[in-house]
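User: Let's play a game. I give you a shape written as tokens, and you guess the letters that built it. Ready? Here's round one.
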């Protein structure tokens, strides 16, 4: 992406309107661009203040009287119509409703982004807790694809390496296999530090397969890498 064009993605990023590739490129740029960070903070601050809603001002109190007087004065020259002043409350209500819908969508988008950020922080903290456990055991994934780390409690993390981004429409899915029975343990799309969603008992096998986006209930192909605890 051109250097100038990536600066223009800040509003779309604030509204969570970028695709995965654009979001990844923008976040890499954001880490080294103080101007974009300041602009993004301004967008998010504005969104947060607007998310609490605004009150629309009422029509001027003398508006009805002026319109009625003018209508009476011009009555011989006009076709009788529904008094114009009656449409003002409806117009104001329509504008307020549209604003409320727009602000609601904006607030919901902001809330979703914050939820994702909190979830990502929780994931990172749990991974650090597993990896930093002095009693944790480390097992190499086959094919030089990283390491399986299992803590004293059985909580486990995969430190995945040498895997490209999952193909379009696909995801990597982890499995904990015991007594030849595979159980789902989470999905991811690229080499990363990844916490398994289920504990790993002694002598269980942890394997990774390529599956359709969203994951499946049982492996559909051979593992691309695995390790035995």
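Assistant: Ready! My guess for every position:
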């Amino acid at each position: 992406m051109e250097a100038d064009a990536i600066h223009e993605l800040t509003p779309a990023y604030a509204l969570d309107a970028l695709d995965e590739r654009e979001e990844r490129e923008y976040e890499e740029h954001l880490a080294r661009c103080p101007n974009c960070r300041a602009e993004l903070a301004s967008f998010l601050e504005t969104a947060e203040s607007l998310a609490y809603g605004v009150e629309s001002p009422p029509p001027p109190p003398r508006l009805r009287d002026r319109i009625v007087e003018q209508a009476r004065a011009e009555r011989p020259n006009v076709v009788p119509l529904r008094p114009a002043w009656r449409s003002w409350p409806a117009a104001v209500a329509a504008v307020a409703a549209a604003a409320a819908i727009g602000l609601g969508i904006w607030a919901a988008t902001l809330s979703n982004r914050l939820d994702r950020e909190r979830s990502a922080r929780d994931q990172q903290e749990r991974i650090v807790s597993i990896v930093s456990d002095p009693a944790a055991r480390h097992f190499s994934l086959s094919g030089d694809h990283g390491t399986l780390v299992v803590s004293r409690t059985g909580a486990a993390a995969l430190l995945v390496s040498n895997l490209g981004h999952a193909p379009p429409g696909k995801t990597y899915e982890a499995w904990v296999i015991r007594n030849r029975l595979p159980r789902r343990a989470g999905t991811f799309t690229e080499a990363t530090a990844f916490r398994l969603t289920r504990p790993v008992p002694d002598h269980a096998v942890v394997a990774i397969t390529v599956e359709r986006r969203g994951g499946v209930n049982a492996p559909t192909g051979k593992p691309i890498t695995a390790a035995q605890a």
